[in-house]
């Protein structure tokens, strides 16, 4: 098929015919009839459709897994929040216990110091009592010894 192109120039009024070339056919359809071309295109369409479905199925599976994992992550996030809250509460309780323990330790130290002081005071009193008792015993022994010596003298002298 030939087409004519008319070109007009402002200075000339002549019309010149220009022949155009027919469009070049793609190499995959050269030498084939319409039925073969349609069959090839249908085969290619089926192949591409099968690949598309395969990819769509894979993407759908990935999407399902992503949603499952998202739900798992949301549950984990909630559990982590509970754990953090519990940990914070336990830390506060531990601080309270440590404070009580320090107070008990101070009270115990005070009681130990008081017990040690009382023990020292009692030991001094006990030593004083023992010393007084020893003096009394020694004094009694001396008196008894003096009486015995006096009685022995009296017996000798009589």
The total count of strands amounts to 0
Low-pLDDT regions:
1-14
Give the mean pLDDT.
83
Biggest sheet: strands, sense, closure? none
The DSSP helix count reads 1
Instruction: Assess the beta-strand content as a share of residues.
Output: under 5%
Sum up the overall morphology in one term: rod-shaped
Radius of gyration, whole Å? 61 Å
Distance between the termini: 187 Å
* Residues in helices, as a percent range: over 70%
Series of secondary-structure elements, N-terminal to C-terminal? H
Class from secondary-structure proportions: mainly alpha
Family: Belongs to the nucleoporin NSP1/NUP62 family.
Keywords: Coiled coil, mRNA transport, Nuclear pore complex, Nucleus, Protein transport, Translocation, Transport
Protein name: Nucleoporin NSP1-like C-terminal domain-containing protein
GO cellular component, one term: nuclear pore central transport channel
């Amino acid at each position: 098929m030939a087409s004519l192109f008319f070109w007009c120039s402002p200075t000339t009024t002549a019309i010149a015919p220009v022949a155009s070339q027919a469009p070049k056919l793609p190499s995959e359809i050269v030498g084939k009839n319409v039925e073969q071309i349609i069959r090839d295109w249908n085969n290619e369409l089926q192949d591409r459709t099968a690949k598309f479905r395969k990819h769509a199925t894979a993407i759908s599976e990935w999407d399902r897994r992503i949603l499952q994992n998202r739900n798992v992550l949301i549950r984990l996030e909630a559990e982590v929040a509970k754990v953090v809250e519990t940990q914070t509460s336990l830390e506060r309780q531990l601080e309270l216990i440590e404070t009580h323990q320090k107070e008990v330790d101070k009270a115990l130290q005070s009681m130990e110091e008081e017990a040690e002081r009382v023990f020292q005071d009692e030991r001094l009193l006990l030593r004083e009592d023992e010393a007084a008792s020893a003096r009394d015993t020694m004094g009694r022994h001396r008196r008894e010894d003096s009486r015995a010596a006096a009685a022995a003298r009296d017996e000798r002298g009589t």
